[in-house]
Design brief:
The protein is α/β, with parallel strands linked by helices and about 270 residues long. It has helices spanning about 20-30, 45, 50-60, 70-85, 100, 110-135, 160-185, 200-205, 210-220, 225-235, 260-270, and strands spanning about 10-15, 35-40, 90-95, 140-150, 190-195, 250. It is about 45% helix and about 15% strand. Bound molecules: nicotinamide-adenine-dinucleotide. Nicotinamide-adenine-dinucleotide (NAD) binds next to α1, β4 and α8. Pathway: Lipid metabolism; fatty acid biosynthesis.
């Protein structure tokens, strides 16, 4: 069901680790819709080798970049422009990692060295990418940048821990940079707040299966899948959403607007 929505557009996709990754699904959809892409991930993630399979399907080069390294980001943007023979039209930031969660440290017992790394990878990295692109003038006018977030930035989801703080910062950076890039180059920047989705990053959160089934029962449309998230992202990269910027957009089947659903109420009555 392709409509050439991204015909002639060129973009960079961060964060495709394996075929479950939201970035992986999005890369496939962007190419189906006529885009040319460059894939990137951290050098350590690339050693798994999976990304090469995606690169082959998408006929895309892979350029390694650790999002905490300015040098890597500058190299990525410069090489991508060389590859495309011009500027970029879209960027997907689909990157997140919490060291405290990974090491089993609870929110009331954070190791702040880990927290700084979490913030750097999961939030500040968006600023690094945008600032580098801004200085290199790497994005075409009306270009579009999307970063992925989660509703724990607005409400407490206990096990999401420090990632909630990282997502709040990420959403704030999208809004703040969206202003400056909008004024300068009409580049739009938004975050998509996605339903819980079974991926490597998602499954790292304790009690994740509980998140998924609770959200499924709460959402009138059910949980949004990674493929549906990819479709929504394509629409934000397309020219049909040119005036949408600085927004946090819920892609969650209605979860964020539901207080309690009949399914959850009935479940509670059983207890
Ligand atoms: N899975 C969910 O339930 C869910 C829900 C809402 C939002 N999100 C967000 O979606 C995004 C993508 O996650 P996903 O669920 O597809 O999981 P994923 O594990 O497939 O993707 C996370 C990616 O971040 C990359 N990464 C980590 N550290 C990096 C670094 N230093 N430099 C460059 N890349 C690095 C990983 O290699 C991986 O490719 C994340 O921002 C995540 O927080 C996920």
């Amino acid at each position: 069901m392709a409509h050439n929505l991204l015909k002639g557009k060129k973009g960079i996709i961060f964060g495709a680790l394996d075929e479950k990754s939201i970035a992986w699904r999005t890369a496939l959809r962007c190419v189906e819709e006529g885009a040319e892409i460059v894939l990137t991930n951290a050098p350590v993630a690339m050693r798994m080798g999976e990304i090469n399979k995606l690169a082959e399907i998408c006929k895309a080069p892979v350029i390694a970049a650790d999002v905490t390294s300015m040098e890597d980001i500058e190299n990525l943007l410069t090489k991508s422009m060389e590859h495309f023979g011009g500027k970029i039209d879209f960027i997907l930031h689909s990157v997140g990692m919490s060291l405290n969660i990974r090491k089993g440290r609870s929110y009331t017992d954070l190791d702040y060295n880990f927290t700084q790394k979490t913030m750097d990878i999961s939030a500040l990295s968006l600023h690094r990418v945008l600032q580098t692109a801004y200085k290199l003038d790497a994005i075409n006018e009306w270009g579009s940048v999307v970063a992925l977030t989660y509703i724990a930035a607005q409400r407490v989801f206990t096990h999401y821990s420090e990632m909630a703080d990282a997502k709040s910062l990420l959403e704030s950076i999208a809004r703040s940079f969206g202003y400056h890039y909008g004024v300068k180059k009409k580049v739009r920047i938004n975050t998509i707040s996605q339903s819980p989705t079974k991926t490597t990053a998602g499954s790292g959160v304790k009690g994740f299966d509980g998140f998924v089934s609770y959200a499924e029962k709460m959402s009138p449309l059910g949980n949004a899948t990674a493929d549906e998230c990819a479709d929504y992202t394509v629409s934000l990269f397309s020219d049909y959403t040119k005036m949408v910027t600085m927004q946090n957009l819920y892609h969650d089947g209605g979860f964020s607007s539901t207080g309690i659903s009949t399914a959850v109420a009935e479940q509670m009555e059983k207890e």
